[in-house]
Amino acid sequence: MTVTQPDVSVIIGAYEAMPYLVKCLESVEAQTLDPARIEVIAVDDGSKDGTGEYLEEFAERAAMAVTVIRQANSGGPSGPRNVGLDKARGRYVFFLDADDYFGPEALERMVAMADEHGTDVVLGKVIGVNRNAPKSMWGKNQPRTDVFSSQIKFTLSAQKLFRRELLTRHDMHFD
């Protein structure tokens, strides 16, 4: 059997993430991108609320490759993100928080944008739910830009599509 490289590794760090994790994982399953092109690396960061068990159930039934890693609590989101990044095989990685979720076409559109334009980082549209999201950068699609001529500096969160090779080449990890 030939194992092909996935297009995108979705890295989900989760700590005490129930019930939000349910919608998060449903949104990953509902992606229009072929499940064979997606891998999920979910890191349970010492949860005691059923998060780890739910992740393992998801891994058993999901159409895409899912790796679940359970570890002692690291004290913040950086530890699980770094563990996931070190296991990722995709051409791209997306750091999805367990209380966030994708629109159905999110990964398909971001991967297509990155492939078409040779982009290292793709920022998809963010909509706040029970909180505000930055609005200044959503006026139009920009296939190419930089931090100086765009408003991307106002969204310094990890929730972006990154070319994995960029991160590994520069040995980039979270503090």
Terminal CA distance: 38 Å
> Percent range for helical residues?
25-40%
Average pLDDT number = 88
Number of strands: 6
Number of helices: 5
Identify low-pLDDT runs: none
The number of domains is 1
| Global morphology | globular
**CATH homology superfamily name:** Spore Coat Polysaccharide Biosynthesis Protein SpsA, Chain A
State the strand order across the main sheet: 3-2-1-4-6-5
Indicate the CATH topology: Spore Coat Polysaccharide Biosynthesis Protein SpsA, Chain A
Radius of gyration: 16 Å
Order of helices and strands: EHEHEHEHEEH
Report the sheet with the most strands, covering strand number, pairing sense and barrel closure.
6 strands, mixed
Beta-strand content estimate: 15-25%
Structural class: alpha/beta
**What is the class in the CATH system?**
Alpha Beta
CATH architecture assignment: Alpha-Beta Complex
Structure commentary:
The protein has helices at 20-29, 51-61, 78-87, 106-117, 164-169; strands at residues 8-14, 38-45, 65-71, 92-95, 121-122, 161-163. The mean pLDDT is 88. Strands 3-2-1-4-6-5 form a 6-stranded mixed beta sheet, with helices on both faces. It has 175 residues and is an alpha/beta fold. The protein contains 5 helices and 6 strands; from the N terminus they run E-H-E-H-E-H-E-H-E-E-H. 28% of the residues lie in helices and 18% in strands.
What's the arrangement of secondary structure elements?
Blueprint: E1 8-14, H1 20-29, E2 38-45, H2 51-61, E3 65-71, H3 78-87, E4 92-95, H4 106-117, E5 121-122, E6 161-163, H5 164-169
